[in-house]
Amino acid sequence: MRSWRLSRTSTKSRSKAPAHIPFKEMSNAPAQPDTFLSNLEWRRAVKHFGAGPVDVEPVIRAATQAPSSFGLQPYRIVAVKDKATRERLQPACYGQSQVTECDTLLVFCARTDVTGRSEEFLKASGAEAVRGMLEGFVGNLQDQVAWASRQAYIALGFALAAAAELKIASCPMEGFVPAAVAQELALDSTLHPVVLLALGEPAEEDGTWPRFRFPESDLVRRV
Asked: Which of 2, 54, 189, 219 could form a cystine bridge with 29, CB 3.0-4.6 A?
């Protein structure tokens, strides 16, 4: 992978950051061998996708294997492959091009019926031994939907990591009107859209900004 990240120590060097390198060029650049971490560095939140199809099933599988509190997985992922449906969703997403250009749009929905989901889990898993603990935990949640949304974001993270590992272009999106998306997809009242993930083939000009990350010293405190 071609390394062109901005300097971690000097604002002066940031002003001399190299010009934007298209996603396609980056993916084809000779570099160090692929590793999980190098693939994460390859990933960008692309703004445009190419026309080619991609196999998103491994990404979906990764999302379903994400950890969640008590293993409840209090969310539903709606995979929108149909182009006409994505075109109807675009106005609810403020006209963002990723929605219609991508191969598949994943809609991560938090479940609003956490108590009901808990009962489903207990029956399906046979984990009656944890019933008291689980019911106490759920009963003490001040905002069940907010909690379920956080669990959905863990699944989103796994999906993003899997897409990077498979060199599938991706873009997580929070800019949309949840009620309008729910209406267009005819979602059950127990499902609340919280975040989208567009997946597809990289475009020659993807519209991404040059990559920047704050240094670990800014983000991590070690004690």
From this structure: 2
Q: How many whole angstroms separate alpha carbon 54 and alpha carbon 198? A: 12
pLDDT tens digits for range 88-117: 999 999 999 999 999 999 999 999 999 999
Domain membership flag for residue 164:
yes
Q: Name the residue range of residue 82's domain.
A: 43-208
Number of domains in the chain: 1
Question: pTM score > 0.90 for this model?
Answer: no
Q: Which of 52, 49, 42, 77 is nearest to 63 (CA)?
A: 77
- CB environment 98-112: b (16+ within 10 A), e (fewer): bbbbbbbbbbbbbbb
Q: Looking at the domain assignment, is residue 98 inside a domain?
A: yes
Q: Both tokens of residue 81?
A: 């492959």
Provide the percentage of residues in the chain whose pLDDT is more than 90: 78
